From TrEMBL, chain A:
Protein name: NADH-quinone oxidoreductase subunit K
Subunit: NDH-1 is composed of 14 different subunits. Subunits NuoA, H, J, K, L, M, N constitute the membrane sector of the complex.
EC number: 7.1.1.-
Gene of this entry: nuoK
Similarity remark: Belongs to the complex I subunit 4L family.
NCBIfam families in the record: PRK05715.1-2
GO cellular component: NADH dehydrogenase complex; plasma membrane
Length: 105, 156
């Protein structure tokens, strides 16, 4: 199975995530689309790790550790981001991101 | 192949469904299919961690916040139509550009034989020998994220 297959799958997942960020106004769904994009990159990195391992490189595990660190950062990001969304909802009773226009004035 | 089709369909379901809870469930299905891909790529440890962290922790957090807010489908704010089309077109254009750029790239085929690289023994050796400093830094990051989440979420 060629590596391109995984590259194209990751590209498709990433573009679906981009579309979701651009199309939706619900802050939680935008957050979920960001998670989707992170996962597309993770999948790409794991497939490249397999490619390097097939090529006989001993340090191919580094890519999988990078994926591990991306998961760590994503978990921290979700914790803080959901706290912010909860705070916004408590103050405005809406998760519409357009309401954050008010931060301008 | 079947896994990828399920992944793409449920990823589209995340974007297109009106009800936020349906989006969360579709995203969980996507994460499970991605974990299946990890297993096929001999990254067993990452597959297990992926299921535990994403499907087990992050999506439960999303569902919990959603139930806390009592979101309904009719509450969902709708964007103007031309903005939706513009978003879909620009996402599709990105897809077309990336695919066209990488279509002719020559990449080696992945062999079907198993590699030992994704086992927890090898990854643990690598993590605690070569990457021990990033590991400690990520623990500090976690601590600060925890403190930040509590401080932001605190009622004042």
């Amino acid at each position: 199975m060629p590596v391109q297959y995984y590259i194209f799958l990751s590209i498709a997942l990433f573009c679906i995530g981009v579309m979701g960020v651009l199309m939706r106004r619900n802050a939680i769904i935008i957050f979920m689309c960001i998670e989707l994009m992170l996962n597309a990159v993770n999948l790409l990195m794991v497939s490249f790790s397999k490619m390097w391992a097939d090529a006989g490189r001993v340090d191919a595990g580094s890519a999988q550790l990078f994926v591990f660190f991306i998961m760590v950062v994503a978990a921290a990001e979700v914790a803080v981001g959901l706290a912010i969304i909860t705070m916004v909802y408590r103050n405005t009773h809406s998760v519409d991101i357009n309401i954050l226009n008010r931060l301008k004035n | 192949m079947v896994l990828s089709v399920i992944a793409l369909v449920s990823a589209l379901g995340v974007v297109l469904s009106k009800n936020p809870v349906t989006s969360v469930l579709c995203l969980i299905v996507t994460f499970f299919t991605i974990a299946g891909h990890y297993i096929m790529l001999n990254a067993q440890f990452l597959a297990v961690v992926h299921i535990i962290v994403y499907a087990g922790a992050i999506m439960v957090l999303f569902l919990y916040v959603m139930m806390l807010m009592n979101l309904n489908a009719e509450l969902e704010p709708q964007k103007r139509n031309w903005l939706k089309y513009a978003g879909a077109i620009s996402g599709g254009a990105l897809l077309v550009v990336l695919v066209a750029a990488l279509r002719d790239a020559s990449m080696p085929a992945l062999s079907t034989q198993a590699t030992e690289i994704g086992l927890i023994q090898n990854l643990g050796q690598l993590l605690f020998k070569q990457y021990v400093v990033p590991f400690e830094v990520s623990s500090i990051l976690f601590l600060s994220a925890m403190v930040g989440a509590v401080v932001i979420g605190k009622k004042d």
